[in-house]
Amino acid sequence: MPAVAPRSGDAIFASAERVNAELFTLTYGAIVRQLITDLEEVDEVNKQLDQMGYNIGVRLIDEFLAKSNVSRCVDFKETAEVIAKVGFKMFLGVTATVTNWDAEGTTCSLVLEDNPLVDFVELPDTCQGLHYCNVLNGVVRGALEMVSMKTEVTWIRDMLRGDDAYELQVKLLKQIPEEYPYKDDE
Amino acid sequence: MASTACFMIVSRTDIPIYEAELGSALKKEDAAQQHQFILHASLDIVQDLAWTTSAMFLKAIDRFNDLVVSVYVTAGHTRFMLLHDSRNEDGVKCFFQEVHELYIKILLNPLYLPGSRIASSHFDTKVRALARKYL
């Protein structure tokens, strides 16, 4: 029987190196600010943040698997739980809750009550379409793609727009079977 | 609550970035501009005084009839200016300190450009609540 995967990232989070939360928040803020200045259009900024997140995600998954000792997840439900309880805790210091499963078990929501990225932030009228935390979308999407799951991640609720929590909808599009580029008998 | 009060935040480059009429009494049309005029006029005095003292709170630096101008200068040289009828000095000081806290929060918002107009309705509500509490 495989070792039971850790159900919380507390231990790893406690031992990991950390930076000051305000430094982190303001650095992320500066990135978003600069993107808005450079790209001028909010939609472009969203796209760029998502792409940046994706690039982070495809690298972060390796670190995550190396440090967290999670075993292979049997289904998408378990995957979502691990992301919410271990992944978010490890890298962001908060945990998410997984809710709103659909009947097929391919779509769920990660709900964040607390989000360190958005301290101090208030959306001005000029940036109403901005998904400030869009980088998180990309991270989740990129990380899952590296473990052969094609997903689509969208924001459902956003506190900056007056909702009561952050809700990230993760939709499993398809599982890519592992492909071997080589043949054994050659 | 003071019968008249006008509050204004002036950026370091002398641009007004926030204005609020905090008085409870109804005023004539031209009175509002008059209050702003008085505050703007006292900016020169603030400029001279600010460098002579290390205190941030400069009380009653100018007066106009029964109205007094008090000013709070932040470290970044943003000036909070309040026109009030002289009664509650401690209240004014507390008001400035709490507004300073709010202003810092605004300044920490990455989407706010320092020196631009403060358009946040949240800030506006909070300032008005503080004015009711202290002035």
TrEMBL record, chain A:
It is found in: Endoplasmic reticulum; Golgi apparatus, cis-Golgi network. The keyword Transport applies. GO terms for cellular component: cis-Golgi network membrane; cytosol; endoplasmic reticulum; TRAPP complex. It comes from the Eukaryota. Gene3D superfamilies: Trafficking protein particle complex subunit 3. InterPro entries: Bet3 (IPR016721), NO_sig/Golgi_transp_ligand-bd (IPR024096), TRAPP_component (IPR007194). Pfam families: TRAPP. Coiled coil: none annotated. GO terms for biological process: endoplasmic reticulum to Golgi vesicle-mediated transport; intra-Golgi vesicle-mediated transport. Keywords: Endoplasmic reticulum, ER-Golgi transport, Golgi apparatus, Transport. Its main location: endoplasmic reticulum. Belongs to the TRAPP small subunits family. BET3 subfamily. May play a role in vesicular transport from endoplasmic reticulum to Golgi. Homodimer. This is Trafficking protein particle complex subunit. The gene is LOC110788322.
TrEMBL record, chain B:
It comes from the Eukaryota. Pfam families: Sedlin_N (PF04628). InterPro entries: Longin-like_dom_sf, Sedlin. This is Transport protein particle 20 kDa subunit.
